[in-house]
Amino acid sequence: MSLIAVVLGSTSDTSRYEDAIKLMNYGFSQFLSTSIAEIYLRNPRVVDIRGFDLNDPQVGRLSLEIRLQSTGVSDVIVTSREEMEYWVQNFSSYTVTEFTRELQAPITQGEVMGTLTYYNESGQPLIYDLVASRSIAAREQLFPSLDQLICTWFSPSFP
Questions:
Q1: How far, in Å, are 71, 81, 122 from residue 144 at the CA level?
Q2: How many structural domains is the chain composed of?
Q3: What is the model's pTM?
């Protein structure tokens, strides 16, 4: 971001530089440099996983992290403080989430669960992987499922 300071009416070179520094500091203080990843971290996606182990301390809730798919692409945004709050509150209206994997245990930490696509002002997409932040074990089946029972009933070895 570039700023230009114009100082008029200073009495000396020293006060002109001091005034310019004050103007520049004020100008830069009004803007934030952030990224899509930092905005996402303020309110990350949390999903409920089915079939989790009953000893899971978070009862199957899984927070998803994001990782930019493309290398060499910048997701930096320079915005005012007021606009930053708007971005955080309306982040989901600028993004599309698609899950590429069923939300079913077992889950391994670091496993890609889907994608999050952010569309900038010009409509160009930035694609992020949605990554599992932790592992979730699957629940042990105490009883056979209906599918397993039907397969057993119709198998040739069933009496």
A1: 46, 56, 53
A2: 1
A3: 0.70
